[in-house]
Amino acid sequence: MIAMPGRGRFITFEGGEGAGKSTQARRLADRLERRGLAVVVTREPGGSPKAEAIRHVILSGRARMLGPAGEAMLFAAARIDHLDVTIRPALARGAWVVCDRFMDSTRVYQGALGAVDSAVIDALERVAVAETRPDLTLILDLPAETGCARAAARRGAATPDRFEGEDIEAHRTLRAGFLAVAEADPTRCVVIDAAQPPDDVADAVWAAVEARLFAPRAARVDAP
Ligand code: T5A
Questions:
Q1: Contact at 8 Å (CB) between 137 and 187?
Q2: Does residue 223 lie in a domain region?
């Protein structure tokens, strides 16, 4: 890899529905900014105008007819634009990027839940993500029932989106899928107990960021 000392850091949040990813992404960004860092908070699917258009198609359920492999390709297409337009330019100018969901969501939702072959997921990752892998992935873990209850309370009377509408067994599969991702890549991933109150989750997130990205041994030489 090419040494890029001025490159920012790339942090992703992953987990099931209602785990608190958006809440914690904002809180982490505030803490990083207070430390004097430039921060870009973004999300998937979305994070750039073309990717947001794809988000709308997927979450409305209109792409469901393509099947999980077709949806995985749409997520990857959105990711290519998001990386090109938002993430890589931000990292190159030294900003820290905090992203609410990224490539592990495809591996878990379309792979573990949708039964898309892991070789297909690997291939999409190679094409879409290439070298721009996260420096740190925070997997917010909590019982499926708790996450679904939070998501339902926040949604109110609105219709569940494409994935919120899955049954509880599906949400348990998602939880197990994210834990398997963490187990397979412990250098990149940290599992956070997301059933705690938001302040405690934020402290656990910050402890992981400090340990993995601010400790002296974390001096990295990644390409953007
Ligand atoms: N998807 C995405 C794929 O299938 N493949 C992919 O490759 C990608 C990238 C995205 C959907 O797309 C799927 C996964 C998703 O189903 P989305 O609308 O972006 O859809 O939905 P989510 O990412 O699931 O986001 P949610 O908003 O549902 O959940 P969050 O962000 O985890 O939770 P958050 O922070 O919004 O909090 C939810 C509620 O809980 C409260 C909050 O105040 C809020 O009301 N809360 C807490 N309550 C108690 N204790 C805590 N610690 C709390 N933290 C938050």
A1: no
A2: no
